[in-house]
Amino acid sequence: FLNGTQTRLHFLPEQHTDFAFSVLAEEWGFVGAGCLLLLYLFLILWGTHIAMNSKDKFGTIIALGVVAIVFWQTVINVGMTTGLLPVVGIPLVLFSYGGSSILSTMAGMGLLMNISMRRFMFQ
């Protein structure tokens, strides 16, 4: 447990950035990978709910844009680590190491929270 052969023998390149999902799946198995994907599904559904309940069109467009970025980064990274897509340098959102990626993701999450908060203001 927590001592996978691919990780320990350094067969996976860039374990902390691009292939962090592979390391998680190797260490925690199907249950761990499934739990992480369920958390991403929850995040995407939460963002879509915020977009649909926004008071103005601008908030809806911004929220759907943030949700689309999170969705496609997750799909591309998981597809890349499972071998379905070619290897590109896209980190897994909120999970793997990436300096500018985490900054832009946090800015997007801040926008989502602001749009959600504005729904209850000035009623």
Topology:
Layout: H1 5-8, H2 20-52, H3 57-82, H4 99-118
Helix pairs in contact: 2-3, 3-4
Summarize the structure.
This protein is mainly alpha-helical and 123 residues long. Helix content is 67%, strand content 0%.
Q: Give the terminus-to-terminus CA distance.
A: 53 Å
Helical proportion, percent range: 55-70%
Low-confidence residue ranges: none
Largest sheet: none
The Rg value, from CA coordinates, equals: 17 Å
User: What is the count of distinct domains?
Assistant: 1
Mean pLDDT figure: 86
Proportion of residues in extended strands: under 5%
The total count of helices amounts to: 4
Number of strands: 0
What structural class results from the helix and strand content?
Answer: mainly alpha
Q: What is the approximate shape?
A: elongated
Order of helices and strands: HHHH
Which characteristics define this entry?
mainly alpha, about 120 residues, about 0% strand, 4 helices
Description:
The chain has 123 residues and is mainly alpha-helical. The protein has one domain (7-118). Helix content is 67%, strand content 0%. Helix 2 packs antiparallel against helix 3 (57-82) and helix 3 (57-82) runs antiparallel to helix 4 (99-118). It is elongated, with a radius of gyration of 17 Å. The model has no long low-confidence stretch (mean pLDDT 86).
